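ok trying again, last paste got cut off:
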Amino acid sequence: MEEDKVYILRKTLTVITLILIFATAGLFILSSQTKTIKLDYYGNVKNIKTLSMTVEDFLMSNNIYTSDNTQVSPSIDTKIKEGMEIKLSNKQELAKLDDATIINEYSPMIAKIEQVEVSIPFNEEITNNSTLERGNENIIQEGKEGKEIVKYLVRYNNNNETYRAEISKNVIEEAQNKIIEVGTKLPTVSSRGATVTVPSAIVVDEGFKQYNIALPVEQQKYAYNLCKNYGIEYELFLAVMKKESGFNPNAIGGGNSYGLCQIHISNHANLRNKLGVSNFLDPYDNMTAGAYLLAIYIDSAKAKVSGDAVVVYALNSYNMGENIYYNTCYSQGILNRGYSNSVIALRNSLIANGSI
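nice, full thing came through this time. structure:
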């Protein structure tokens, strides 16, 4: 029995000895096949021990993946040798930055608060003076520019302005408007019915043009001088008389309107007091009143419309009375009427053909 135990012990020791021998031999073999290589991974260098046979095996066993842009040196089929270097880099060389160049060219973004003194322009104020004859004006107050300080946030890059924004304004001196007084008083013109008798030969300047119309030349001259005094168009005034009376000084309309310009009876008393006219069938008295009324309507029209619309507005006011025209037509969006269209057509025909 004792001999069996010794036998088993000897056998066990023999097996253990053999295992140790084989393990030692295996370790020796592994040790002899292990190689130390240098890995340069995009500039990060370290030493690695490996049992891999080729560069490709080494990369795979170390979970190193490559792309189309990866440069592997030496090639992946190269056998691993002790002390060799495996280098991974980009096929396309990255741009290299020159620190000195960057420092020299770099200019930081600069923001500044700047303030500038700016002139404030003055405006013109026009005031009407009914006691001053039209065409005259007085300067009541001279204009003077004001001053203000404007603050801006300004950004510069490399000394070039890239942004500017207004932050605040501070008026340090108010502008003083120029005030101009203009005359609106219409001049009165003596007629044959007034204290001054119209001369047998009326004097006109070189701008006068005689037209082939049913109005005597002396009356044309008188009408021309009226228009110059009242600042209205001579041909337009002739067209009004053609439309109103056909140049018949004795015409009396069904609405109690009289003479060349068809002056309505409701205006007679006022015009007698203002102009000194006395006989509305007298061509000179009648033209004096007609030109005066047309000038008033033109002045009134200028306060409401501009351009060619002034004449249209004035003609329709002359025909209907301004209040009626404004309330029933103009305020409803109606500017042109048959009357104004007809007078303007007569005026254009007179200018083009010399007659109507």
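cool. The longest helix spans residues 2-33. The mean pLDDT is 84.
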